[in-house]
Amino acid sequence: MEDRILDALHDDEALALAADRLIEAGRRMDRFGWVPSYGGNISARLPDGGIAITRSGGRKGFLSRENVIRVDAEGRPARAGDRPSAETLLHCQIYAAFPGTGSVLHGHSVAATALSRAVADDHLPLAGYEMIKAFPGQLTHETTVRLPIFPNSQDMPGLAAAIAPKLPQDIPGYVLRGHGVYAWGRDVDDAMANLEAVEFLIACELEARKIGGR
Q1: Would the pLDDT of 4 be above 50?
Q2: Domain 2-212: which topology?
Q3: SS3 helix, strand, coil % of the chain, rounded to 5?
């Protein structure tokens, strides 16, 4: 009985600490304009393998600990009545595919939303940018990485199944067309750095196309 009580206390503490990091991340994403209205969802892996994730509907720039809940590795809430983000399954998929991942961040920036609608291909090639070196394993700007663009869908199991065989290995992120960016990393800070890099590169591509008339 005492062991179960201690485990519950440790679980609550871990969730609170993860919530605090996600609150910071939500505020930063809000400052960039990446989570307007009730858009976006953010999560962190817990020490026991569970996931701390934002509730459905919360405004990410104004989160409190109450807006972050625990789900298991399949996305099932630990507490009856808790309603996680509708896209929780996509977070779970990334954690399962990349065991070293400690956080997943998803936003709805104007640049990602607009450019992904304008690009007909299933990926956005990014070449020659110094910022490419921000991604794990990328040592030079003299390379090309492909940022996947997946069709958006409200059918989460179907969307996850379509994404699964095409999850990128050379860049920790992808875009849902007309929707926004998913990015991940070792922890919340690393995921934020990767999200910033992806968003920067998308914004550069959008500006280049404006200038060049593409």
Answers
A1: no
A2: L-fuculose-1-phosphate Aldolase (3.40.225)
A3: 45, 20, 35
